[in-house]
Amino acid sequence: MSAYRNHIAGWRDAESGRTFRRTDPADRRREVGEFADSSAADVDRAVTEAVVAQRGWAARSPIDRARVLARAAALLDAAAGDLGAVITAEEGKTRVEAAGEVVRAAEVFDYVAALARLPEGGVFASSRPEVTLRTMRRPLGAVAVITPFNFPVFVPSFKLAAALVAGNSVVWKPSPVTPLTGIRVLELLLEAGLPAGVIGYVTGASAEPGEALVSHPGIAAVSFTGSGAVGGLVERGCAERGIRAQVEMGGNNAAVVLADADLELAAAAVVDGAFSGTGQKCTATRRVYVERGVADKLVELVGARAAALRVGPGTVADTEIGPLATDAAATRVEEAVARRVDAGAQLAVGGHRPTAAALRHGCYFEPTVILERESDPAGLREEVFGPVVGIQEVADETEALELTNATPFGLCASVFTDNLHAAERFARRAVVGVVNINLPTTGIEPQVPFGGLKESGRGPKELGPRALDFFTHEATVAVRARTETTTLR
Fold first, then answer.
1. Closest listed residue to residue 464, CA positions, set 102, 24, 118
2. Element (H, E) at 29
3. Between β-strands 253-257 and 412-416, what pairing exists: parallel, antiparallel or unpaired?
4. In sequence order, what are the beta bridge partners of 291?
5. pLDDT by residue (tens digit) across 389-409?
6. How confident is the model at residue 373 (pLDDT cuts 50, 70, 90)?
7. Does residue 248 have an active-site annotation?
8. Residues near 420 by Cβ (< 8 Å), separated by ≥ 6?
9. The Cα angle at residue 330 between residues 256 and 362, in degrees rounded to 5
């Protein structure tokens, strides 16, 4: 088994010498590697190095920094197959999905690099004679990036690209589920020309390194994606220090299917949204509200598609649903489904761990469709992070929209209809950050902002034309042209 270390201006063991091991979720008997189990001391060293390195990085021109990101984009794209195989081994998703994630991360780096060539700030008239006003961006300093397991390349690409092109240095803490994937990304960034001290990488199996990052006086801001419980701690820790926090904390996303919808299209989109990535997406479809009169047909279509999905290791070519990332995750999904059934829901498809001998050592769960005849309050509050979707019949568009908004989350929602007016009403009234019309709830493109409302996320959005906002200060500069006739007022 290979041993891997932190990167703190070079590869280093944890100060304590402690390590942790990561196993393959497709077969827990296989070990992926042994990794540094970092403490606050490792974080302190990483932040100290990042603070020093940031000065030189910020002194380079934005276009020069962007060239490094553009080279990283090309390297990521070329490494999609190899890096995808690492994602499959650590996180479990299929090879096709994993390679696709890497390609999309490359697109993010490419897009953010291009932002460096766009006009920066603005020029304004002043009420003072011979004075010109302009605005400019400045980097924050050393920033912390804390990323999840479910998109171990794509989500970090949002944060790393924007932070780095803006002139910040970064200390990155990945999920303990996917530490090797992050190491491979880091290696490509270094190959692209990123100075070694500009990015620190600390792995750990406990909460200690994350807590140390949030509380460290050298960290100027924290960008976090993960659970609501941890996101709340990050926010509070940053607020106590008076620094910025950007948190994305999941969703309980609804798809609404109206009576005039193309049901085949809707069913395909629901299955894609609910089960791709084994349902381990913050944007995944968790709830479906279907208008009376077409509910039975939609259930039939969704159920048939879900039942036909092939469950197995992500390395097998025809696998469509890989394992969950950990055995604990599979147990949580199993318990959540049991609670829904106990509350009166009916299993239409799945609902259990597979019993096949070939899958018994993995973290698998069957694609599951639950029929909910009455709204379950727990179902509105709980994000079941796995291959589970609930379908409920509703009277009309109004009830569907009310239920869509009844959750504490507000990340994504979809509506399926051929009625332009209904689609526009939904887009204007759904309390979410991303609205999809005749499309799955999933799907992110780098050129538009991404982020949620309510308990799904707080702070500036990621991606899009304003991707650098969180990682920069905006300063106003007043300039007086000195001439013989100039007088101060």
1. 118
2. strand 27-36
3. parallel
4. 394
5. 999 999 999 999 999 999 999
6. confident
7. yes
8. none
9. 125
Higher pLDDT: 483 or 2? It is: 2
The active-site residue out of 91, 101, 107, 282 is 282
User: Token match 């304004």: residue?
Assistant: 124
Q: Look at residue 380 and tell me whether its pLDDT is greater than 90.
A: no
Q: Contact, 388 vs 333, CB < 8 A?
A: yes
pLDDT band per the 50, 70, 90 thresholds, residue 236: very high
User: CB within 8 A of 374, min separation 6: which ones?
Assistant: 344, 392
SS3 assignment, position 327: helix
DSSP letters, 44-82, are HHHHHHHHHHHHHHHHS-HHHHHHHHHHHHHHHHHTHHH
Number of continuous H segments (helices) and E segments (strands) in the chain: 14, 23
Residue range 13-40, pLDDT digits in tens: 999 999 999 999 999 999 999 999 999 9
Nearest CA-CA partner of 367 in 390, 399, 401, 397? 390
3-state secondary structure (DSSP) of residue 332: helix
Given the residues 248, 366, 397, 462, select the one marked as catalytic: 248
Global pTM exceeds 0.85: yes
**Pair type for strands 346-349 and 409-410:** unpaired
Per 3-state DSSP, what percentage of the chain is helix, strand, and coil (rounded to 5)? 40, 25, 35
Structure tokens that stand for 136 in this block: 């400019």
Average pLDDT of the residues in 100-105: 98
Average pLDDT, the chain: 96
Q: Check: CB of residue 3 under 8 Å from CB of residue 33.
A: yes
Q: Is the pLDDT score of 489 beyond 90?
A: no
Q: Return the pLDDT at 374.
A: 73
Q: Is 90 a residue of the active site?
A: no
Question: Is 53:75 a contact under the CB 8 Å cutoff?
Answer: no
Please give the full DSSP string across 184-239, using - where no structure is assigned. Answer: HHHHHHHHTT--GGGEEE---SSSHHHHHHHH-TTEEEEEEES-HHHHHHHHHHHH
Structure tokens at 451: 């982020």
Percent of the chain's residues with pLDDT above 70: 98
